[in-house]
Design goal:
single chain; 3 helices; elongated
Length: about 60
C-alpha cells in the first residue's frame, strides 16, 4: 500500500500487531485503516463542526 506514514508509540504498535492478527486482518495496515475508517465515519454523521468537537471530546481525543 502506498501513502503517508504515521508514528505511534511502540506499546500501541505491539497491541495493534497482536489484535490485528487475532482478528484475522491480513496486515497491520489493513487493521489500522479499518479502525480509522470506522472512527471517521462516526464523525462524518455529525451535522456541524461544534457537534464534531463534542464527539471528539466525548471520545477523549480533545479537551
Amino acid at each position: 500500500m502506498f501513502g503517508a506514514k504515521i508514528r505511534i508509540e511502540r506499546t500501541l504498535l505491539e497491541k495493534v500487531k497482536r489484535y490485528s492478527k487475532i482478528a484475522g486482518y491480513s496486515s497491520v495496515e489493513e487493521f489500522v485503516t479499518h479502525a480509522l475508517e470506522k472512527e471517521v465515519a462516526k464523525l462524518e454523521d455529525a451535522a456541524s463542526e461544534e457537534e464534531i468537537k463534542e464527539r471528539l471530546k466525548g471520545l477523549g481525543y480533545i479537551s
